Amino acid sequence: MSTHAIVRRIPNSFKTLALGISDEIDLEKAKTQHEEYCKALRNVGLKVIELPEDENLPDSVFVEDTAVICNGTALICRPGHPTRQKEVEMIRTVIKKELELPILEISDPEATIDGGDVLFTGREFLVGLSSRTNEAGSRALAAAFPEYPVTPIRIKHKLHLKTSLTMAGPDTLCVSEEQESQDILKKIEQEASFQYKTITVPDGDAANCIYVNGTLIHLSEFPNSTKVFEEKVDFNRIALNISEFRKADGSLTCPSIVIKKTK
C-alpha cells in the first residue's frame, strides 16, 4: 500500500508564467481543482504532505518531475527545462527531513530527467527519452535502482512518456488510440522485460491516470474514455476534472509524488 503523497500549492505566477500555456488559466478554478485532487488522494488512504507555493517557480505545482521514489529510496531528478531545476530543493528537504528516506543524487552533469518520463510498472522502469529526459538521465535511473530492468523509449512529440501511457491497474497499461501512444506500446511489447494487459481509451489526455491503493483516479472531462473505464475497471474509480492544469501541459500524475513508506 502507498502511504504518502507530496503535493505543492499553486503560485499565482502559474496563471501567466507556467511553461506550455495553451489557453487562459482560471487561477481560482485551478486552486479549487487542486483541493479536490488532494482530497481524492486522502480518500485513497494517503497522508498528503502539502508544500507551500513559491512565486519564483511557476511550474512547481507539478512535483512529479522532481523525484523518483521506489523501494524506500529517492532519486532527486534534474528537470530538463532549466527554469524548473530549483524546484528540487524543497522536495529534497521534505523527503530527507519529513519522510526520512535515503536520497540519491545524479552525478553526471550532462544528465537530465523528469519524473513525468519515468513509469514504474511494479516490475520494471519504462523511461521516455524526450525533450526533457536524455540517455544519461536514463542511465542515472538505472544506476539508482539496479534491482529493476530499465527500458528507454524514444518520445517524438509528447512532452513526457506518461502523457501517452500510465498504469491503470496491476500489470495493466492505459494507452490512448493516438498514433504515438500506439507506437510506444508497440515498442514496450517488443523491448520491455514483462508483458502487460492494456486498456485503450479514445482520448489522448485520458491515458494519463493514477492507480493507487486499489483505486483508479482518471479524468472526468472525457465521457467516451470514462465509458471505457466503466466497462473495463471492476474496482474503485474516482473521476477528477483538472482542466486548468491541462492548459499548462499538466496531466493527472503531474501534481503529486506517491510514496510507499515502510515503517
UniProtKB/TrEMBL annotation:
Keyword annotations for this protein, in alphabetical order, are: Hydrolase
Similarity annotation: Belongs to the DDAH family.
User: Taxonomic lineage per UniProt?
Assistant: Eukaryota, Metazoa, Ecdysozoa, Arthropoda, Chelicerata
Q: Which PANTHER family is this protein grouped with?
A: DIMETHYLARGININASE, DIMETHYLARGININE DIMETHYLAMINOHYDROLASE
Keyword Magnesium assigned: no
Pfam families reported in the protein's UniProt record:
DDAH_eukar
Origin, by domain of life? Answer: Eukaryota
Report what the protein is called: LOW QUALITY PROTEIN: N(G),N(G)-dimethylarginine dimethylaminohydrolase 1-like
